[in-house]
Design a protein that fits this description.
Chain A has about 300 residues and is an all-alpha fold. Chain A contains 13 helices and no strands. The chains are: A mainly alpha (about 300), B alpha/beta (about 375).
C-alpha cells in the first residue's frame, strides 16, 4: 500500500510540468497556431525562475518571473508567425533553439547551488487521514494549481464567449475576421498564454521538482507536451490523462527496474512513450468526433483581407 | 612548474617534425609556434559533473602552456553524426591534439583519425585505439568500492541503490563495486540498480532516486551528469554518494563522499608529449593510485570506524593488496565467476555485462 501511494504521488508530480505546458499549447493550437517552441519556452521559464530565486526574490515572485519570461519569449514566435506570417513550423523550431540558448546563458553560474524547494502543503486534519491524506492532501501548491488551470482552461474553451471566439478563429479565421473578431490579437494572446504556461512548467522543474538548474534540464518534456496535445486530439481532459499516463509509466518502469524485472532497461525506458501513444490513439479512435476537435486552420498563417 | 617558452615549443616543434618524419608519429611537425588543442564535450560545462572535470583538464593545459596554447572547445556534442563533423573540422583547422570525452565520440574519432595522421587524438572512455588515437579511462570502480565501504557502515536497511546513465561496462562495474564494498561490511547487503538510459535528465533521475527510497534503500549513488540523485537523497534524509565532482553541498549533510575524476595529469601529459613530439597512442586505465580517481572528503558525521575502514580500503587498493573484484566472486544467479584467491581480469572488468550476487536489477 505504501508503495502504491508513493507511485501515485510520484506520478501526479511527474506529470505536473507536462500538464502546464500541454494545457498552454492546447489553447495555442485551438486558436489555429502551432507553436513548436515549447521546449525552449520551458527552459527559459526554468532559467529565469532560478535566476529570480537567486536574486533573492520570494518563491511566488520567482514563479511569476518564470511565467512572464515564458510569455515574453513566446512573443518572438508571435511576431514571426503572426505579424510577419512566416512558416509556423520554422518559427516554432527557431524558438525552441533560441530558448535553449537563452536559458543556458541566463542560468550560467547557478548550476552548483541547490534551490530551496517549495515545501508540500500540509492541511490540518485532511493531510493526516491515512491513505487519502498522503495521496491527495500533501502536494506542493503548484500541483493543485495545475488542476485549477485544467478547470479554467476547460471552462474558458467550452463555457465562455471568449473561448468560443478563440475556437472559431482556430476553425476559420476568415469567418471570425468577417464578423469582427481581432484574429491576430487573439492569437497573440493565446501564444502568450502558451508561453506563460510553458514557463511555469519549466519553473516547476527547476524550482519545485528537481529543484536545481542544469542546462537543458527539461530533457525533451516540451516535445512530449506537444505530442500529448496532438494525441489527446485537442481535448483538455485527455491531455491530463495523457500526462498522468506518461508520468505513471515513467515511475512504474523505474520501480520495475529497481525490483529487477527481467526486461531490458532500454525496453522499459521506451514504455511511457509507447503506452501513452497507444492509449491516446485508442481513445481518439472515433474519427468523426476527432474532426470536431481539430482546429482546421492549424499552422496556417492568417492574412486579413479587405 | 617550468613555463614552456615560445622558443621551447619551436625547438621541440622542429625536433618533433624530425621525429614525425622518422617515425610517422603524429606531432606538431610544421614548426608551429603555438600548440593547438581541441576538445569536444558531451554536455554543456556546468559547475559540476563529468564535463566540468574534463574542462578542468583543458584548463590545466592552459595553465601549463600559457600563451603557447590555443584551445578550441565545442560543447554539447553527443550524437555521433554531429561529432564526426566536429572532429573533422577541428582536425582540418590545424589542431595538433584533439580530445573526445564521451563513449559516443568513439566511432566518429575512429573514422576521422586515419584521415589526419599527423593529428593526435585522445578519446576518454574509448575502447578502440589506433595509431594516432589513444584512449584513457578511469577505474571508477575503485572509488565506488571505497564509497561502498562507507555505505555498508551507514546502511540500516542493508539496501543500497544505484542509478546509472546507461547499462555499459563502465557503469555496471562501479555498481558491482559499490555493492562489493558494502558487502565487505555487511555481507547481506543488496543493491537495487536503475538505468535512466540518459546521462542528462534531472527529472527522471529524481524519479529514479525517489523510487529507490520508496523501495527502502538508504544509501543512493548516482552515476549520471547531475547532482539530482544526491539532492533527492538529502531531501529524503538518506545517504548519498557523489560522482565526478564533490557534491557535498547538494547532499543536505548526508553526502558520504564522492569519487571524483581528475583528468588534469592525463591532459597535461598528452599536451606535453605532443609538444615534444614524443606522443604515442596508448591505452591508459588509471584509478586511485594514479590520482585520476580521488575520494572527496568523507562526511564529518561518519563514525570513526567507518572512516578508518574506508581509508584502509583506499590505501589497500592503492597498494594493490585489495582488489574490489577478488574471489570468491559470484554473479546474480549464484554462479561462481572468480574462485577464491583469484581476481577478475582487467579485460573482464572492462567488459562487465553481469551483476554480482546481491544486485537487484536487470541487464537484459
Amino acid at each position: 500500500m505504501e508503495l502504491f501511494i508513493s507511485i501515485f504521488v510520484a506520478t501526479i508530480v511527474a506529470a505536473t510540468p507536462l500538464v502546464f505546458a500541454a494545457l498552454g499549447e492546447l489553447v495555442v493550437e485551438k486558436s489555429g497556431v502551432l507553436n513548436l517552441g515549447i521546449e525552449g519556452m520551458m527552459l527559459v521559464g526554468a532559467a529565469f525562475g532560478v535566476w529570480a530565486h537567486f536574486a533573492g526574490l520570494s518563491m511566488p515572485v520567482a514563479l511569476l518571473t518564470a511565467v512572464l519570461s515564458g510569455a515574453v519569449v513566446s512573443l518572438l514566435f508571435g511576431v514571426l508567425a503572426l505579424t510577419f506570417m512566416t512558416n509556423q513550423y520554422a518559427a516554432g523550431l527557431a524558438l525552441a533553439i533560441f530558448g535553449t540558448g537563452v536559458s543556458a546563458f541566463v542560468g550560467r553560474g547557478f548550476g552548483s547551488t541547490p534551490v530551496e524547494a517549495i515545501q508540500p502543503l500540509h492541511f490540518p486534519v485532511l493531510s493526516d487521514i491515512p491513505v487519502i491524506g498522503p495521496m491527495l492532501f500533501q502536494f506542493d501548491p503548484l500541483v493543485y494549481f495545475s488542476f485549477v488551470m485544467f478547470a479554467l482552461v476547460t471552462w474558458f474553451l467550452y463555457r465562455t464567449k471568449a473561448g468560443l471566439a478563440l475556437r472559431a478563429i482556430g476553425e476559420s479565421p476568415d469567418s471570425a475576421h468577417a464578423i469582427g473578431y481581432p484574429v491576430i490579437k487573439i492569437r497573440y494572446l493565446a501564444v502568450m498564454f502558451g508561453g506563460a504556461m510553458a514557463g511555469l512548467g519549466g519553473a516547476y522543474l527547476s524550482l519545485v521538482y528537481t529543484p536545481l538548474w542544469v542546462e537543458n534540464m527539461t530533457a525533451g518534456r516540451g516535445w512530449i507536451s506537444l505530442a500529448l496535445v496532438v494525441f489527446a486530439a485537442w481535448r483538455p481532459l485527455r491531455v491530463m490523462i495523457g500526462a498522468w499516463l506518461f508520468g505513471g509509466m515513467t515511475i512504474l518502469q523505474l520501480q520495475g527496474q529497481a525490483m529487477g524485472v527481467s526486461v531490458p532497461s532500454e525496453v522499459l525506458s521506451a514504455l511511457p512513450y509507447l503506452a501513452t501513444i497507444v492509449v491516446l490513439v485508442l481513445i481518439s479512435q472515433n474519427r468523426k468526433a476527432m474532426a470536431l476537435d481539430f482546429p482546421v486552420s492549424l499552422a496556417q498563417p492568417f492574412r486579413p483581407r479587405g | 612548474m617550468k613555463r614552456v617558452t615560445r622558443r621551447d615549443v619551436l625547438k621541440y616543434g622542429s625536433a618533433a617534425g624530425l621525429a614525425a618524419g622518422l617515425s610517422g608519429l603524429p606531432s606538431i611537425g610544421q614548426a608551429a609556434d603555438v600548440l593547438k588543442v581541441g576538445a569536444v564535450y558531451v554536455s554543456p560545462v556546468s559547475e559540476i559533473g563529468w564535463t566540468k572535470q574534463h574542462s578542468l583538464g583543458i584548463e590545466a593545459i592552459q595553465e601549463e602552456f600559457g600563451d603557447n596554447v590555443e584551445v578550441t572547445v565545442i560543447d554539447n556534442i553527443f550524437r555521433p553524426q554531429d561529432a564526426e563533423r566536429v572532429f573533422r573540422e577541428l582536425a582540418a583547422s590545424g589542431n595538433h591534439l584533439i580530445f573526445g570525452t564521451s563513449f559516443s565520440h568513439g566511432t566518429p574519432m575512429q573514422k576521422v583519425a586515419p584521415r589526419f595522421p599527423k593529428v593526435a587524438f585522445e578519446h576518454c572512455s574509448g575502447i578502440k585505439h589506433l595509431k594516432n588515437l589513444g584512449t584513457f579511462e578511469a577505474k571508477y570502480f575503485e572509488g565506488c568500492y571505497v564509497a561502498g565501504v562507507l555505505a555498508g557502515h551507514v546502511s540500516k536497511s542493508a539496501k543500497i541503490g544505484f542509478i546509472g546513465g546507461f547499462p555499459i561496462p563502465d557503469i555496471v562495474g562501479p555498481a558491482n563495486a559499490l555493492l562489493r564494498g558494502a558487502q565487505s561490511v555487511n555481507p547481506d547487503t543488496t543493491c537495487n540498480v536503475i538505468f535512466l538510459n540518459s546521462w542528462f535528465d534531472p527529472g527522471k533521475e529524481k524519479e529514479a532516486a525517489k523510487t529507490l527510497v520508496s523501495q527502502g534503500c538508504d544509501v543512493i549513488c548516482s552515476m549520471t551528469d547531475t547532482a539530482t540523485g544526491v539532492q533527492v537523497a538529502g531531501e529524503n534524509d538518506v545517504w548519498s554518494v557523489g560522482y565526478a565532482s564533490d557534491m557535498a553541498n547538494f547532499g543536505n549533510g548526508k553526502h558520504l563522499t564522492a569519487f571524483t575524476l581528475n583528468w588534469a595529469p592525463v591532459y597535461v601529459q598528452a599536451a606535453k608529449d605532443v609538444a615534444a613530439g614524443t606522443w604515442q597512442s596508448t591505452e591508459r586505465w588509471q584509478g586511485l593510485s594514479d590520482g585520476v580517481v580521488r575520494m572527496s572528503p568523507f562526511n564529518a558525521d561518519l563514525p570513526g570506524e567507518a572512516v578508518s575502514a574506508a581509508q584502509k580500503a583506499q590505501d589497500e587498493i592503492i597498494a594493490g593488496t585489495l582488489h574490489p573484484f577478488a574471489g570468491e566472486l559470484k554473479d546474480q544467479g549464484g554462479g561462481v565467476r572468480v574462485e577464491a584467491g583469484g581476481v577478475l581480469s582487467d579485460g573482464d572488468i572492462r567488459s562487465f555485462d553481469w551483476f554480482v550476487e546481491g544486485v537487484i536489477g536487470n541487464l537484459g
